[in-house]
Each structure stands twice: as structure tokens, then as C-alpha cells.
């Protein structure tokens, strides 16, 4: 299959490109498009065959449900059985935005879209191109991250091309994304609602609006015997090819330890990558250093994370050593993704 790639500008949206994307989606095809979090791989969510093509293109396990993307509140009513009062309050504040909510699904949503579950995940993205494509494609677009399963999520159209060129009908290139990590997932079928995946809308932000919010404990205790509540969270996702270690503790000791380990692996002939920050740049002596952002603003770290993991892959890196980050605010989303990338391999260094 030849994949059509078209660039589109948020300020001056090319109507022909949107029309083409809409037609492909309505016919049951696959279109990758930008959102504010990561690029999504879209298909008509109400067409079981179309949704099925997503699984094939990504190599995604069929029990891993898709998020249905909508562009207005009326659409939410059509695909859900009930919308709890709290969800209405949360939607008013955070939609459109980087938040996905889970509801009991209506009949019209096929089980092929929800991985066999009787619930449906819904998100209204805060991105003009995404909204136009959703509307053009019929209003209900299933869209997982547009990467091959197991690879880091795509934050640019080039990343999508690397993974899916030749396997999907179209890529709409709207430039780099804003946030860089996937949406927060909030299960509204339980009360208090529960976070199943941390993202840019944080627990603190949600709690200040509607009171207590629980967090799936498997996100905090990776060795928990229970599987995560979001089926996709159990896979070793977001993973670079290199073996990755996160070092936690006093920053000077972390740097010292990374320098020691990097020197050792380099001497053995391996390619070493280091993930540090603006604050620590210049303090690493061996290895390929990449600056992930500044600790003053951890949103910068979220924004660069997946791109850096992909760069290390294309450089043929064997070992990656990374500093660790705070777990408040967006930091919890960053640490969740870093831990998964490292297969929960974390080293605590003492003073
Ligand atoms: O930011 C995002 O959410 C991006 C953009 C494209 O919108 N999409 C995304 O989709 O990250 P995906 O498929 O890569 O991740 C969806 C996650 C998976 O972990 C899946 O298991 C979970 O959402 N999920 C979907 N429906 C669910 C449901 N009904 N119950 C529990 N978890 C669900
Ligand atoms: Mg994904």
C-alpha cells in the first residue's frame, strides 16, 4: 500500500487534505493525524472492520481496547449508556484536552473497538486538525498512538512514517505535538473515579475539581500481582531497543554513578546513551548525552522523552542511563513512561 503523506498547517488548514482524510476514514481506511498529546492512528470507531485494520497495522494485541475520539459533547451521549455527573463537570473543565474518560458503552460501539469490553474510552482532543479530521471522518474516530506496538509513541509525522509507512492509507503531517506523552485515562465507571494511566491532566488537578480520585495501584507498585486495569498498560510499551536503567538519589551521586557505568560499558565496546537535563549537561564525561529538558519545567521533559528514545534506537545504542524525575504533576506521567521504557529497572544510589 502506498501511504499518502500531506502537510497541513493549523492556521491555514488545507480543505482538500481534510476532505481526503475524511473520505478515507468514511470508507473504512486508516489515517494518522496529530493531536496535542501524540500522533493517533485513526479509523471509523463504529465500523468493526475499520477498527480491526488498526490492530493489524500496529501489530497490536486484540484485547487492547481503542480510545474513541470525538469533537463535541453530543457525540458522547450517542456512544455511552450513562454519563455520571462528575464526568460532565470534568469534561466542562478539561475537554477538549489530554484526558480520556471510560464509560459504559452504547450498543453502537462494536466490541472490535473496545477489545471485547462493555466499556468505552472517549477523548476530545484539543487540536484543531484532529477535530477537523474527526468531523470529516464521521465524528467517532478510534485512535491509538500511531506507532508499531512496543515502540515509543510518535511525537512527529516522521516517527509515524518510520513505523507505519506502507501499512496505512494516509499520514496528515501537522508538525510536532505539544505535550508528548499520552492522555490521562480516568475510569468513570467507578466512584471515586480512578486514574488508569497518568498524563498531563494530573490527579491534583482532578481532585481540586471533584474530590477524591484513586490511582490504579499497579502503576505505583509494578510488582503487584494484579494486572493493570487498562489492558494496554501491561505490555512492555514505550520501549527502546537498548537496555535502560534509571538512577535515583542525590544528583551528584547519580552523575558519578552514570559516569562510572558509562565508562565501563564504553570500554567493553558498547554504545552508551545518557539522558540528563539542562541542569546537568556538561557533567557527563563518556557516552552520547541527550538533554531531555529542564527540571524547572518538567513539561519540557515530557515533550522530548519519546523522540530521544527513538533517536537512541536509530543510533544503535546498547545501554541507556537516565536521571529520574519527580512524581508530582506531569512528572508522574514522565516517570511512568520512563519506568516502562526501562522495564522497571531502577537503581537507588546512596549519598
Ligand atoms: O493521548 C492519547 O490518548 C493518544 C492520542 C492518539 O489520543 N492515544 C493513545 O491510545 O494513547 P493508545 O491506544 O495508545 O492507548 C490507549 C490506552 C490503552 O492502554 C488501553 O488499554 C486503554 O487506553 N483503554 C482503552 N479503552 C479502555 C477501556 N474501555 N478500559 C480500560 N482501558 C482502556
Ligand atoms: Mg499507545
Compact summary:
With 351 residues, this protein is an alpha/beta fold.
Describe the structure in your own words.
There is one protein chain. This protein has 351 residues and is of the alpha/beta class. It has eleven helices and 16 strands. The protein has helices at 15-26, 48-58, 73-79, 85-94, 128-136, 157-164, 203-210, 217-220, 251-267, 298-314, 331-341, and strands at 4-7, 31-33, 40-44, 67-69, 99-104, 119-123, 141-142, 170-173, 184-187, 194-197, 214-215, 243-249, 272-276, 288-291, 319-323, 346-349. The chain has an eleven-stranded mixed sheet, sandwiched between helices. A five-stranded parallel sheet has the order 14-13-15-12-16, sandwiched between helices. Helix 1 packs across helix 5 and helix 10 runs parallel beside helix 11 (331-341). The termini are far apart. The mean pLDDT is 95. It binds threonylcarbamoyladenylate (TXA) and magnesium ion.
Distance between the termini: 56 Å
Secondary structure tally: strands: 16
Based on CA atoms alone, the radius of gyration comes out at: 20 Å
Largest sheet geometry: 11 strands, mixed
Name every ligand kind in the structure: threonylcarbamoyladenylate, magnesium ion
Write the layout of secondary structure elements.
Blueprint: E1 4-7, H1 15-26, E2 31-33, E3 40-44, H2 48-58, E4 67-69, H3 73-79, H4 85-94, E5 99-104, E6 119-123, H5 128-136, E7 141-142, H6 157-164, E8 170-173, E9 184-187, E10 194-197, H7 203-210, E11 214-215, H8 217-220, E12 243-249, H9 251-267, E13 272-276, E14 288-291, H10 298-314, E15 319-323, H11 331-341, E16 346-349
Parallel strand pairs: 1-8, 2-8, 4-6, 5-9, 10-11, 12-15, 12-16, 13-14, 13-15
Antiparallel strand pairs: 2-3, 3-7, 4-7, 5-6, 9-10
Helix pairs in contact: 1-5, 10-11
Bound molecules: threonylcarbamoyladenylate (TXA) and magnesium ion.
Threonylcarbamoyladenylate is lined by residues 35, 37-38, 40, 64-67, 100, 102, 114, 117, 119-121, 123, 125, 143-145, 182-183, 185, 196, 230-233.
Amino acid at each position: 500500500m502506498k501511504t499518502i503523506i500531506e502537510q497541513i498547517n493549523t492556521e491555514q488548514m488545507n480543505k482538500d487534505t481534510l476532505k481526503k482524510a475524511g473520505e478515507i476514514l468514511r470508507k473504512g481506511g486508516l489515517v494518522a493525524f496529530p493531536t496535542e498529546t501524540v500522533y493517533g492512528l485513526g479509523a471509523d470507531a463504529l465500523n468493526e472492520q475499520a477498527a480491526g485494520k488498526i490492530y493489524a497495522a500496529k501489530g497490536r494485541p486484540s484485547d487492547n481496547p481503542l480510545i474513541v475520539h470525538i469533537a463535541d459533547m453530543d457525540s458522547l451521549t450517542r456512544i455511552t449508556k450513562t454519563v455520571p455527573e462528575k464526568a460532565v463537570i470534568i469534561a466542562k473543565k478539561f475537554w477538549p484536552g489530554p484526558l480520556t474518560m471510560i464509560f459504559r458503552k452504547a450498543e453502537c460501539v462494536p466490541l472490535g473497538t473496545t477489545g471485547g469490553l462493555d466499556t468505552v474510552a472517549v477523548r476530545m482532543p484539543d487540536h484543531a486538525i484532529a477535530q477537523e479530521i474527526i468531523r470529516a471522518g464521521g465524528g467517532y474516530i478510534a485512535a491509538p498512538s500511531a506507532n508499531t506496538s512496543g515502540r515509543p509513541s510518535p511525537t512527529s509525522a516522521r516517527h509515524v512514517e518510520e513505523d507505519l509507512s506502507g501499512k496505512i492509507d494516509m499520514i496528515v503531517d501537522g508538525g510536532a505535538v505539544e505535550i508528548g506523552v499520552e492522555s490521562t485515562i480516568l475510569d468513570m465507571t467507578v466512584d471515586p473515579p480512578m486514574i488508569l494511566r497518568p498524563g498531563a491532566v494530573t490527579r491534583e488537578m482532578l481532585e481540586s475539581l471533584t474530590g477524591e480520585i484513586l490511582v490504579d495501584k499497579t502503576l505505583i507498585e509494578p510488582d503487584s500481582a494484579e494486572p493493570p486495569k487498562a489492558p494496554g498498560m501491561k505490555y512492555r510499551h514505550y520501549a527502546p531497543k537498548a537496555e535502560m536503567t534509571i538512577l535515583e538519589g542525590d544528583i551528584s551521586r547519580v552523575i558519578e554513578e552514570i559516569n562510572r557505568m558509562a565508562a565501563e560499558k564504553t570500554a567493553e565496546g558498547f554504545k552508551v546513551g545518557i539522558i540528563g537535563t539542562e541542569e546537568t549537561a556538561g557533567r557527563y564525561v563518556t557516552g552520547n548525552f541527550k538533554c531531555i529538558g529542564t527540571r524547572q519545567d518538567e513539561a519540557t521533559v515530557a515533550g522530548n522523552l519519546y523522540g530521544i528514545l527513538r533517536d537512541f534506537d536509530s543510533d544503535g545504542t546498547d545501554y541507556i542511563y537516565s536521571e529520574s524525575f519527580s512524581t508530582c504533576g506531569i512528572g508522574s506521567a514522565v516517570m511512568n513512561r520512563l519506568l516502562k521504557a526501562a522495564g522497571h529497572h531502577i537503581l537507588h544510589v546512596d549519598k
